[in-house]
Amino acid sequence: MSLRRFLTTYTLYFGLVLLVLGLILMTFGILAMFYSDADPDDSPLEGTLQDVVDWIGGWWFWCLGVGLVLTLAGGWYFSDNIRKRKEFKELMEITSKKKFLQNMDRIEYLAWKLTPWHRVEVSKKKKKFHIK
Q1: DSSP, residue by residue, the chain
Q2: How many beta carbons lie within 10 A of that of residue 128, not counting itself?
Q3: What is the pLDDT of residues 69-114, one digit of tens each?
Q4: In angstroms, rounded to a whole number, what is the distance separating the alpha carbons of residues 114 and 95?
Protein backbone atom coordinates (compact mmCIF):
# COMPACT_ATOMS: atom_id res chain seq x y z
CA MET A 1 0.00 0.00 0.00
CA SER A 2 1.45 3.35 -0.99
CA LEU A 3 1.84 6.18 1.49
CA ARG A 4 -0.68 8.33 -0.38
CA ARG A 5 -3.33 5.61 -0.34
CA PHE A 6 -2.63 4.89 3.33
CA LEU A 7 -3.04 8.56 4.29
CA THR A 8 -6.16 8.90 2.14
CA THR A 9 -7.72 5.82 3.68
CA TYR A 10 -6.88 6.69 7.27
CA THR A 11 -7.11 10.51 7.25
CA LEU A 12 -9.88 10.50 9.84
CA TYR A 13 -7.83 8.44 12.29
CA PHE A 14 -4.62 10.33 11.45
CA GLY A 15 -6.35 13.61 12.29
CA LEU A 16 -7.73 12.18 15.52
CA VAL A 17 -4.30 10.92 16.60
CA LEU A 18 -2.73 14.31 15.85
CA LEU A 19 -5.51 16.07 17.76
CA VAL A 20 -5.16 13.87 20.86
CA LEU A 21 -1.35 14.00 20.80
CA GLY A 22 -1.46 17.78 20.46
CA LEU A 23 -3.87 18.12 23.38
CA ILE A 24 -1.65 15.92 25.55
CA LEU A 25 1.47 17.93 24.67
CA MET A 26 -0.33 21.21 25.30
CA THR A 27 -1.58 19.97 28.66
CA PHE A 28 1.90 18.91 29.75
CA GLY A 29 3.34 22.16 28.44
CA ILE A 30 0.88 24.21 30.46
CA LEU A 31 1.43 22.11 33.59
CA ALA A 32 5.21 22.38 33.21
CA MET A 33 4.94 26.14 32.71
CA PHE A 34 3.44 26.52 36.17
CA TYR A 35 4.70 23.55 38.17
CA SER A 36 8.14 22.52 36.82
CA ASP A 37 10.05 24.35 39.55
CA ALA A 38 7.46 23.84 42.26
CA ASP A 39 8.40 22.47 45.65
CA PRO A 40 7.19 18.83 45.80
CA ASP A 41 5.44 19.52 49.10
CA ASP A 42 3.51 22.54 47.76
CA SER A 43 2.71 21.17 44.30
CA PRO A 44 -0.86 20.01 43.63
CA LEU A 45 0.57 17.42 41.22
CA GLU A 46 1.54 14.07 42.66
CA GLY A 47 3.56 11.04 41.65
CA THR A 48 4.13 10.28 38.01
CA LEU A 49 2.47 13.46 36.77
CA GLN A 50 4.90 15.59 38.78
CA ASP A 51 7.78 13.44 37.49
CA VAL A 52 6.74 14.05 33.87
CA VAL A 53 6.38 17.79 34.49
CA ASP A 54 9.83 17.87 36.13
CA TRP A 55 11.27 15.90 33.20
CA ILE A 56 9.84 18.43 30.71
CA GLY A 57 11.30 21.28 32.75
CA GLY A 58 12.49 24.12 30.54
CA TRP A 59 11.12 22.51 27.41
CA TRP A 60 7.56 23.50 28.30
CA PHE A 61 7.56 26.20 25.62
CA TRP A 62 8.30 23.64 22.90
CA CYS A 63 5.67 21.24 24.22
CA LEU A 64 3.13 24.04 24.22
CA GLY A 65 4.05 25.24 20.71
CA VAL A 66 4.24 21.81 19.09
CA GLY A 67 1.06 20.79 20.91
CA LEU A 68 -0.76 23.83 19.55
CA VAL A 69 0.37 23.11 15.98
CA LEU A 70 -0.59 19.43 16.24
CA THR A 71 -3.96 20.30 17.77
CA LEU A 72 -4.77 22.75 14.98
CA ALA A 73 -3.59 20.40 12.22
CA GLY A 74 -5.30 17.34 13.69
CA GLY A 75 -8.51 19.24 14.37
CA TRP A 76 -8.57 20.54 10.81
CA TYR A 77 -7.92 17.11 9.26
CA PHE A 78 -10.48 15.45 11.51
CA SER A 79 -13.24 18.04 11.02
CA ASP A 80 -12.59 18.35 7.28
CA ASN A 81 -12.90 14.60 6.83
CA ILE A 82 -16.11 14.47 8.88
CA ARG A 83 -17.56 17.32 6.80
CA LYS A 84 -16.65 15.58 3.52
CA ARG A 85 -18.16 12.31 4.69
CA LYS A 86 -21.38 14.05 5.65
CA GLU A 87 -21.59 15.86 2.30
CA PHE A 88 -20.85 12.60 0.44
CA LYS A 89 -23.60 10.81 2.32
CA GLU A 90 -26.10 13.57 1.49
CA LEU A 91 -25.15 13.54 -2.19
CA MET A 92 -25.36 9.75 -2.39
CA GLU A 93 -28.92 9.81 -1.01
CA ILE A 94 -30.12 11.56 -4.17
CA THR A 95 -32.72 9.44 -5.92
CA SER A 96 -33.00 11.50 -9.10
CA LYS A 97 -30.65 10.60 -11.94
CA LYS A 98 -30.70 14.21 -13.18
CA LYS A 99 -29.61 15.62 -9.80
CA PHE A 100 -27.02 12.88 -9.45
CA LEU A 101 -25.51 13.82 -12.82
CA GLN A 102 -25.52 17.51 -11.85
CA ASN A 103 -23.52 16.69 -8.72
CA MET A 104 -21.31 14.04 -10.35
CA ASP A 105 -18.11 16.13 -10.28
CA ARG A 106 -18.45 16.89 -6.59
CA ILE A 107 -19.36 13.29 -5.74
CA GLU A 108 -16.35 11.92 -7.60
CA TYR A 109 -14.07 14.50 -6.00
CA LEU A 110 -15.29 13.58 -2.53
CA ALA A 111 -14.94 9.87 -3.29
CA TRP A 112 -11.39 10.48 -4.49
CA LYS A 113 -10.52 12.41 -1.31
CA LEU A 114 -12.14 9.85 0.99
CA THR A 115 -11.58 6.09 1.25
CA PRO A 116 -11.62 3.48 -1.53
CA TRP A 117 -14.93 2.28 -0.08
CA HIS A 118 -16.49 5.61 -1.15
CA ARG A 119 -15.27 5.07 -4.73
CA VAL A 120 -16.93 1.66 -4.74
CA GLU A 121 -20.19 3.24 -3.57
CA VAL A 122 -20.03 5.76 -6.42
CA SER A 123 -19.52 2.91 -8.90
CA LYS A 124 -22.54 1.07 -7.50
CA LYS A 125 -24.68 4.20 -7.76
CA LYS A 126 -23.54 4.76 -11.36
CA LYS A 127 -24.49 1.19 -12.25
CA LYS A 128 -27.85 1.71 -10.62
CA PHE A 129 -28.50 4.77 -12.80
CA HIS A 130 -26.88 3.14 -15.89
CA ILE A 131 -24.14 5.77 -16.11
CA LYS A 132 -20.72 5.00 -17.56
Answers
A1: --HHHHHHHTHHHHHHHHHHHHHHHHHHHHHHHHHTT--TTT-S--HHHHHHHHHHGGGHHHHHHHHHHHHHHHHHHHHHHHHHHHHHHHHHT---HHHHHHTHHHHHHHHHHS-HHHHHHHHHHHHHTT--
A2: 11
A3: 999 999 999 999 999 999 999 999 999 999 999 999 999 999 999 9
A4: 22
**Whats the size of the chain, residue-wise?**
132
- Domains identified in the chain, total number: 1
Residue range of the domain that includes 88: 3-128
Contact criterion met (CB below 8 Å) for 88 and 110: yes
81 Cβ neighbours under 8 A, 6+ residues apart: 11, 12, 15, 114
